[in-house]
Model the fold of this input.
Amino acid sequence: MKIPLLLASVALLMTASFDPAAAFTRRADKPPAGNCGSLVARHGAENVWFGRYSGFLSLEFKGREVPFSNQGCFASEASCRRWQNENMTFTRGGSMRYTSCERGAPARYR
Done:
């Protein structure tokens, strides 16, 4: 009696929809970027660096890639460039579409 119940439970778990990409792309897992509002208040909009990253996260166990993006502000160009490299590492060899580090905060933070 216990074996059919166990087999039914395993079958149910195997058919449950699970997207492994969600486990890797949660906001908390992304390389952290500075808060634009607080950095602009502290350093001024013209002294803040704004970084963007867009590409794909490689899911080796699935043999596919899923879209990935990240953005944020930084106090220096060096910290922005380091953040770009952290994003490249985070995507596990997934292809990169676009990345930039530009001086000046976007207009929405001015």
